[in-house]
Amino acid sequence: MGTKGHIVFPKIGPVKAILHRRFTGTVKTVTVVREASGKYYASVLVDDAQPKVVPDTVNFERTAGIDAGIKTAFTVASQGGTEKIDNPTFLKKYSEQLKKQQKRLARCLRIVNVKENEKGEKVKEVTVSKRYEKVRKELVRTHERIRHCRKNWIDQITHRLVNDSQVTTYVIEDLNLKGMVKNHHLARAVSDVGIGNFYRTLQYKLKAVGKNLIVAGRWYPSSKRCPECGAKKERLTLKEREWRCAQCGHEHDRDEAAARNLRHWVRLSESDKHRYGRNGRALEKEAIPF
């Protein structure tokens, strides 16, 4: 629970605020953001004068791989086993409510007039009714609720992962998120998971406690490679959620195999990692033994 207090701004003075934690150290900057709903949030940067935490050494036995998906949001593979974290689909749960509010907003009065200013430039003047502004705020608050629910869910997951005493290093995949949201069949589902926010939150939390976050190469075939023998399945469509290795005969779940292969990334040589780097595809197709 927050406590009532004040934030002192230069040229403005003290402003009432709800403080969610106590500040110990020197306040450097305060960034104020106004949401579309009319609420103000202040982000306070504080220097606590504490020395930086030295990150732990990378050890395969204490490494876990995280594969991001859609239906199964994240699959975590470690030495203790594999865990699947389902996608709560917050946007899907509020979709009907959003549709109704958007229909109501479309029926409200909104007049757009185009006029010329003193410089001769055309400027739009928008006039809305009180009803329009009321419905708009309801729609904005719904989007804000979805965003806060997703952020709270990500904070809970990352907190549990960071405080796992058996894992000191996590390996994630370098995804082209901007390219993925351009796919009209996957854009809404990918955005609903919040993969980018999950990666950013996990990164700063791991850094604060001295643990490692490693990003595997973008062209590393984590889903296509057999985690048992290292053989690669050349053709694997998105619809295939399970597949059998032609070399060793093991059956694999697509997400679990990807998470296990990401865990094996730390055991690859530097030359193999360079082949699957961000700037180029793999140069060879033979299996890499683990």
Automatic annotation (TrEMBL):
Residues of the Cas12f1-like TNB domain: 197-262
Pfam families, sorted: Cas12f1-like_TNB, OrfB_IS605
Acetylation listed as a keyword: no
Domain Probable transposase IS891/IS1136/IS1341: 55-183
Keywords for this protein: DNA recombination, DNA-binding, Transposition
The keyword DNA-binding is assigned to this record: yes
Family: In the C-terminal section; belongs to the transposase 35 family.
Protein name according to UniProt: Transposase
Organism expressing this protein natively: Parasutterella secunda
Species classification: Bacteria, Pseudomonadati, Pseudomonadota, Betaproteobacteria, Burkholderiales
